[in-house]
Amino acid sequence: MEYEKVLSKSMEIISALDWTLSPEEITQKTQELIDLGNVEYEKIVSIPSEQRFFANVVKKLDLISLQLTNLNASLYFPAYMSTDSEIRKISNEASQTISKYFIEVGMREDLYQAVKDAKQNSRDNLDTIDSRLVERQLRDFRRNGLDLEDSIKVKIKSIRKELAKLSIEFSQVLNEIKDTVEYTESELSGIPESTISNFKKDESGNYLVGMSYPEVLPVLDYAKDSNTRAKMAKVYGNRGIAEGNVARLEKAITLKDELAKLKGYENHAEFMLEVKMAKNPKNVIDFIDDLIVKLKPKGISDLDLLVKEKQKDGDSETKINFEDWRYYKRVVVENDYNVDDEVIKQYFPMKKTVEGMLQFYQDLLSLIFIELNNVPKWHDHVQVYAILDKNTDNFIGIFYLDLFPRDGKFNHAAAFPLIHGRQMENGSYCQPVAAMECNFTKPTKETPSLLQHSEVVTLYHEFGHIMHQTITKSRYATFSGSSVSRDFVEAPSQMLENWIWEPMILSKITSHYKTGEVMPMDLVDKLVKSRDAFSGLTDLRQLFFGKYDMIAHTNSQLESQKLWHELQEETSLIPPYPKTNPAASFGHIMGGYDAGYYGYMWSKVIAQDMFTKFQENGITSSDIGMDYRRHILEHGNDFDENELVERFLGRKTNNKAFLKSLGLEN
Length: 666
Ligand SMILES: [Zn+2]
Hints:
By secondary structure, the chain is α+β, with helices and mostly antiparallel strands. It has helices at 3-14, 23-45, 54-76, 78-81, 85-106, 109-121, 128-143, 150-175, 193-196, 213-222, 226-236, 245-262, 268-273, 281-312, 322-337, 341-344, 350-365, 453-470, 491-497, 503-509, 521-530, 535-552, 560-572, 587-590, 599-617, 622-633, 641-649, 656-661, and strands spanning 181-183, 200-201, 207-209, 367-372, 383-389, 395-402, 414-419, 422-423, 429-430, 433-437.
């Protein structure tokens, strides 16, 4: 496709986005969005019940959701990228108002009735994806409790309110933790000078170390004296207890169980997992227990390395305590793996690394990216690209790259969907747009921007999400792009991290910022070897959190400290610090990730399994890349995630590849 044509097509698509809105306009357009929704929903409920069909109700609801979500892009996204604090504040408020509105829409009984009628009237001539859309809409209304008697609904509402309050208080406590540990200078021996100089001091000249990661981790990682680390472990493991978080957590577990039972579920986990790839708590527990057994040998050999290191310190004790494991792990990694981040990063100058990443994705997935000049964007640094299909030359979508930090900008790395894909009634396709936000150091004339290897991994990971969000051909907005369940959504990106650990790829994409030389093989080997350092203990720790979360949410009562102490050493091989209760500061379990902590390991296992398809056929095989596009990326959530993966692999997924990647046979 000629550049001019690509440009005009792109302009047409992004004309739906507006990055110039003032705070007043954001507020006004938020109201317009809600008004539009109300008008459209009213049209649906005013259709007489015998005239309600798939097309004018179910399909129409999907279209309205597309229109509203796409309008929302210009309203919610400024909160993440604007340099104007007033705009960020208003954008945040807009986003909350709109989420609240969508929740209210999900509670509308008249809309639920319309979908039920449509199902009744148009039962026979729907294909799999149409039927899936009907069932999805019914499911979501049902999960909101719309089938229940009024007295139960009232009860549910009051429990939800109580839960929301507990959850807010729980995280407020954690945000406002003021605990400190007092140390003399000699107690901090081993911690780098540059870190110590950032610690606060009291009048007597002692150091007061707080509970933020940049304070806690250096103490646990570097302090030579185990008593120093133990003092920290004790205070850190008891955060939130004095402020009442244990009672809040345990109460919340009971309330969530009650809520689930009122809705007709056995427990909270069963309710949460109904909409996940894992489906039910039994599958999750089986998954976790199986992995624990199989990872234990690696965990035990990891532990052995720590014990040996501890004995070198003249300690005859053979037990690794909570306050020991991070410290000895760091020592062993430094001695045995000897990977110097400062040397590695010289081979990843940012500009070339990003270009290499874009080339990698184009080759693997048979795509062409065309940079667009002079198109509207929110900042000069932002780059905009059109995506074309290499084989057919068809226009696919657009992405923005926003790579450098700015004041007030979102300070992690993430991919944001802006316009969602959908088949339109006139036969055209609503082409998706997504944005990647990162924070790499901006190069200057004197100093190039060099990326840590971990930042390169992040880059490939986040761009994997961009591909998932844009390379979609789903018929409906409900299923398009990365709108898959949360225990699968990371899998495509986790899979794509693998390439950045492949010697063949590293020798291609690295280039020393001064000499242009590729990374020498011995450095590549060291880097690759370091990937699995202590992966046994690290993954067992993840599985411990996942299991704790799952047990808590399949029961009506939680004795949070007792369960923690019963479970931690048994699953992760590292004991908790005596008499602490880290559950009082386990934010994930209170909201958001509740009954979902297993998801990270779940998707990681699937990611490794999907990667085998490339390993078997050559990791740069564009044929397999095309299969991956067709079966995973293009389908979004058109089918159950288990089915998508099975179509791609040609078999059911299993954990063999994951274990093999850790050097474990099974
Ligand atoms: Zn991710």
